[in-house]
Amino acid sequence: MFSTLNIRPIISKVKKIIKTIRLSRFGTINSMESVSNEHFEKLINESMDELPQEYIEGLNNVVIIYEDEPTPAQRQQLKLRCNQSLFGLYEGIPRTKRGAGYMFVVPDKITIFKKPMEQYVSSLPELKEQVKRTLWHEIAHHYGLDHDRIHHLESKDKPDPKNSWR
Questions:
Q1: 59, exposed or middle or buried, with CB in 10 Å at 0-12, 13-18, 19+?
Q2: Rounded-to-integer distance, Cα 86 and Cα 17, Å
Q3: Which of 59, 63, 134, 145 could bridge across to 149 with cysteines, CB 3.0–4.6 Å?
Q4: CA–CA separation, 119 vs 23, rounded Å?
């Protein structure tokens, strides 16, 4: 008969294998160790300082928070499958949709999700870059950009290998 002490190492190995399988669905198995909440908040603040300030200063009635992971209700609302992840979420009324009656409303909310990012990246510099990209993406939603427009703008920032000098 197995004792509890003999089974624990096996359970630990199985959990690591399951984590590796889950992470491979995100496109990487090189996840980094978790950073403290204080350090993650610092990364958000540093990223905000590095984004174009005219867009940061124009954030009207918006709160930016972070959570470990999306809630089940958020995942369901977005119709995310179990193998899909979410780095950030904008919830609110984009500036382009606000009319004359836009007053006395609760703030829009941008949520940055810590654990999915930690599972996706393999280093602290990569985490900071992902935080910055996610913030930019969610702030773009606040300004009324849809995913097609955001992806178009993001692709313009990437060098085209066909036109690069060698």
A1: middle
A2: 22
A3: 145
A4: 7
